Each structure stands twice: as C-alpha cells, then as structure tokens.
Amino acid sequence: MQQDILEVLFTEEMIQDKVRELGAAISRDYTGKSPLFICILKGAVMFMADLAKRTDIPLEMDFMAISSYGDSTKSSGVVRILKDLDKEVEGRDLIIVEDIIDSGLTLSYLRNLLLQRNAKSIRIVTLFDKPEGRTVNISPNYFGFQVPNRFIVGYGLDYADKYRNLPYVGILRPEVYSH
Ligand SMILES: O=P(O)(O)OC[C@H]1O[C@H](OP(=O)(O)OP(=O)(O)O)[C@H](O)[C@@H]1O
Ligand SMILES: Nc1nc2[nH]cnc2c(=O)[nH]1
After folding, report:
1. Which of 55, 58, 59, 53 is nearest to 25 (CA)?
2. Using DSSP, how many helices (H) and how many strands (E) does the chain show?
C-alpha cells in the first residue's frame, strides 16, 4: 500500500495533534451539554473514534452512511443514504463529524435533512476542508486542515474503498488510477 503513495501531506503525528486541538475546542464550547456526534460513514470512522476520545464531555454517538462518490474521485452529485441514524435528533445539539468537505453536496443535503427533523442546533467538524472544490455554500464550524484541490487518501479516506487504514494522509501515484 505504502508504495502507491506519491507524497504524504499529513503525518500521523500532525493528524493526532490536530485531533487533540479540535477535541479541546469542542469540549470548551459544549461544556454542560451532551451533544450527539454523528459520524458520516465510512470516511469519518477514524476521525470520529480519535476525536471522541479527545473530547471531555458526555457526548453520544450515532452513525449514518452516505455516499456520493462510489468508486470515483468525482462526486456523482447524487447523495444516497445507505444507513440512517438510530437515534431521534429532535431537540438535540448535533455535531456532524466528517473526514472531508469537498463539493459540500453531502453536508448540504445532510444539514437540510437534520433541520427538517427539528434538531436544536447543528455544527460541523471536518478534519479536512477543500474550499476550492465547493459547488454549494457550506462551511465547517471546526476544521483541521485546508487541503489543495487534489484527491487525498488515508485515515478513513478511500480510493475505491482502499487506503482507509493508512495512519497518515497522502496523494496516490497516477498509475494507481489507471489499474
Ligand atoms: O463535499 P463532498 O463533495 O460531498 O465530499 C465529501 C464526502 O465524500 C466522501 O464520502 P464518499 O461519498 O466517498 O463515501 P465514504 O465516506 O464511504 O468514502 C467523504 O467522506 C465525504 O462524506
Ligand atoms: N478519498 C477522498 N474522498 C473524497 N471525497 C471528496 N473529496 C475527497 C478526497 O479528496 N479524497
């Protein structure tokens, strides 16, 4: 797997330091509250697990699987819910946990859905933000790193469902896409 990586952009240590910072900020902002962390599967699974451990408040967790990319590096524009939440969100403080915001289509769809379900508040935390990719107007409340307009993999982020288990984040060699 390592040999498929052209360049490492964010090392394991950089990621873990940033996750600690984000956990501390959320803990401060949500003191006395018990927000529901909503992990957007599958990409956000690593970030959710690490962030929750660094957040010192009585949070709850739920999981939603959404896909708009399939096996491609471009969003299809069609957002599909593959698994819905188990919990009711009405009247709750929600924190949507994402690995990356690119076009913004996934989050824009999701935020509208959760507003319709009468959430009390909705904030978004993403580890990576790719502002140049944006086609809809949405921005995170908390973000770890801004990334260039390149397709990145690792730490939950996949290409064709692979590379999610890399502990760091990087860019694939061009040959990998032509296989
Ligand atoms: O801002 P957008 O352009 O909508 O892109 C962001 C979404 O794309 C990825 O999910 P993907 O659809 O690849 O599913 P996955 O998390 O299961 O890999 C990522 O995890 C975000 O949810
Ligand atoms: N793996 C991966 N998924 C994405 N979804 C939206 N942007 C990206 C990206 O850069 N990498």
Report:
1. 55
2. 4, 9
Residues linked to residue 94 through DSSP beta bridges, in sequence order? 36, 122
What residues pair up with 146 in beta bridges, in sequence order? 129
Single-letter amino acid, residue 57: I
Q: What is the pTM of this model?
A: 0.94
Domain annotation for the chain: domains and CATH numbers: 13-148 (3.40.50.2020)
Residue 102 known to be catalytic = yes
Model confidence pLDDT, tens digit, residues 85-119: 999 999 999 999 999 999 999 999 999 999 999 99
Q: Whose CA is nearest to atom 6 of ligand 2?
A: 102
Rounded to 10 deg, the angle between the 45-53 and 12-29 helix axes is 60
Cβ-based neighbours of 108, under 8 Å, separated by 6 or more: 136, 137, 138
CB of 61 within 8 A of CB of 40? no
Instruction: State the sign of the Cα–Cα–Cα–Cα dihedral 112, 143, 23, 7.
Output: positive
Please identify which of the residues 50, 99, 102, 129 carries the catalytic annotation: 102
- Terminal CA-to-CA distance of the chain, rounded, Å? 14
